[in-house]
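Quick one, T. Sequence first:
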Amino acid sequence: MLGSGETDFGPQLKSLSKKLFTVVAWDPRGYGHSRPPDRDFPVDFYERDAKDAVDLMKALNFKKVSLLGWSGGGLTALIAAAKYPAHISKMVIWGAIAYITDEDQRIYEGIRDVSKWSEKARKPLEALYGYDYFAKTCAKWVDGMQQFKHLDGNICRHLLPQVQCPTLIVHGEKDPLVPRFHADFLHKHVRGSQEQANHRQGLELTVVRLDVHRRALPWQVASDARRETQPAFTFCK
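Structure tokens:
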């Protein structure tokens, strides 16, 4: 929610070798530096984001890309991989979901009021957006997520079997916003996925995030990347 390349991936963007990689940090419309317009949340906003991302890659003349998506970005990546398979080579997602439950809705309501967030979580987003836009858009995001309950909670659940690219699914054991059952569901429904059993209880998501970016991006030896990062648990297709 409201994350951007600048706030969420700054260290990785600075550290990745510019000789080895061409990295595009894409902000969805209304997020980060993709403003104007202000962010809105029609029922198809994730599908709109996925199309926007693929259209951007086409405009930049990239025929195929590898995706990294965290949280809502992971959900967007899943949709992009399912709907535009010819353009997606490989994918890493973490902290992602395909549907929402009553438990998720309660969690989202708990973060609606940004004045109750910790200063550490709030400060970077306030600096990027200003308090008013940040607070207003956070509340709108919660409302946007709640509308999926009228679709039996489905966001992209029906698209998962269409994902064809090699996919690494990562999840933090202590993720406070996304319960583990979401990663289990993705593992079950993304075709051909296998549990790698790299479980290390207590490893923080921030460490996973940093290591996945540093080591999993090269892709040449996926098993070595998994062995080195040792996230809380991973599934790899």
